[in-house]
Amino acid sequence: MDSPDIFDRAARRLQRDRAAVAYRNADFLRAFMLDGIADRLNSVSRNFESVLDLGCFDGGFVAPLGARVARVDAGFAFAATAGGVQADEDRLPFADGAFDLVVSAGVLDSVGDLPGALTLARRVLRPDGLFLAAFAGAGSLGTLRRVLQEAEGDRPAARIHPQVDVRSAGDLLMRAGFALPVTDTETLTVRYASLFSLLRDLRAMGAANVMPGRVRMRRDVLARAAALFAERADADGRTSETFEVITMTGWAPAPSQPQPARRGSGTTSLAQALRPSPEKS
User: Fold this and answer.
1) CB count in 10 Å sphere of residue 73
2) Sign (positive/negative) of CA torsion 67, 53, 30, 79?
3) In this structure, are residues 242 and 188 in contact, taking their beta carbons and an 8 Å threshold?
4) Is residue 31 over pLDDT 60?
5) DSSP classification of residue 23
């Protein structure tokens, strides 16, 4: 029996179509993620021939020189703009082993079946293919979370969806079957003149609430949250909000990759390793 989706798939697609209209006004977070992905790609000394841009937005990812690129997005408008296909990240329409590089920036935090999406990303990679992804992690939107909880009182509604932390991200990579998994985190701080500016950016980047059963916020609660947000402002009238960016790196397994040493194959015992070195005369 399939488990229920954490996110409303239809609402997510619609949200991405609406975001496509004003996305260029709020693409800073994905640009930050793509810069990090580009840095990691530049450190890899190999050529890539076939690339999948998973969650392509407007097609802003620049593929390695000479590579063929397939782009996919859950939103029809983004997929059409980028010349790609519309599909959910956990329901990919590609054959196993179709790509030697899969890149994803800014979408995996709101995928209904993240373990499934990662498993599919590994399956569409050829042996020794590279997976690079970045998304907003559990340290994101702390200020927004606090002011909404305080504004709604004892029984706050779920306004911000569950987010993955960096340790869980590493576990998910291993569970999906990636070799040599690495996860790391960076923080981006953005200063806003008002709560409404932050909410406008979240809508424009397709990052608003798409959980099932979401409840519209009352006007008095929104006004109270805006006032609490303003109370946290610096002397210049701007309030800081934080985005935690988690980056995942993994490789499709291949015989040529470094393998962990066989258990018991060491030639030096722990006691010998810890024994003090003899003094030199």
Assistant:
1) 30
2) positive
3) yes
4) yes
5) G
Angle at 136 between CA 140 and CA 88, to 5 degrees: 140
Look at residue 1 and tell me whether its pLDDT is greater than 90. Answer: no
**What are the CA-CA distances from residue 109 to residues 42, 72, 115 (Å)?**
25, 16, 11
Q: Which of 248, 222, 116, 99 is nearest to 159 (CA)?
A: 222
Q: In this structure, what token pair is assigned to residue 198?
A: 């932050």
pLDDT of residue 5: 74
Contacts of 224 (CB under 8 A, 6+ apart): 151
List C-alpha distances in Å: 148 to 51, 145, 220, 261. 40, 5, 12, 50
Q: Give the pLDDT confidence score for residue 281 in this predicted structure.
A: 44
pLDDT for the residue numbered 87? 97
Instruction: Locate 237 and state its tokens.
Output: 């009238």
Nearest to 251 by CA among 79, 99, 148: 99
pLDDT digits (tens, 9 = 90+) for 49-79: 999 999 999 999 999 989 999 999 999 999 9
